[in-house]
What does this fold into?
Amino acid sequence: MKLPMWTLRWLHRSRLSRSRLKGTFLHSWLGDRILDKALWRPTPESLARAWLVGFPITMMPFLPAQSLFAVAAALLLRGNLLLAIALQYLSNPFTAPVHLPACYFVGELMRGHSPVAVWHHLETTPMDLLSGGSVASLYSGAFVLGILGGSLGYAIIRSVWKHPTAHRSRTRRPHHGNTPHGRS
It folds into this structure.
């Protein structure tokens, strides 16, 4: 898959192209790994690896500098940097009303509480999610949901998005006879 030309121009103007990164501080610090095409091109493998490491990081609530952690993880596994950074915007104040209760619910279930009791507690006192007593449940649930979501996304991307088949040249009909166009 190729990126649209406007995207490539924007990346180049923003000094995020491979040619502009060569010889910079990032290149000298990270080496040739920063110039790896898998980091910049959206291939099934690089996108799946970016989802595998980016989704668990975005599930961690109240994690400062999520994008930096996602970039470091994507660099280690050669995942697509743009997707790893974009995934970090899934956890924001607008998604917190869904994100935090889901993490808390799974964390409380892991700690052995009844699903009905946990659901009732979430409905009656939702602000308890931000108290100190719910931190263990929030983070354990986020860990489990992050690993499950990352693994599931990796498997879906790898199974759904197949490599494009090589274009086959059209097979010509064999020429019959001695006429110039193969007609007799």
User: Anything to note?
Assistant: The mean pLDDT is 79. Residues 135-160 form the longest helix (26 residues). Residues 61 and 139 are 7 Å apart (CA to CA). Residues 17-160 form one domain.
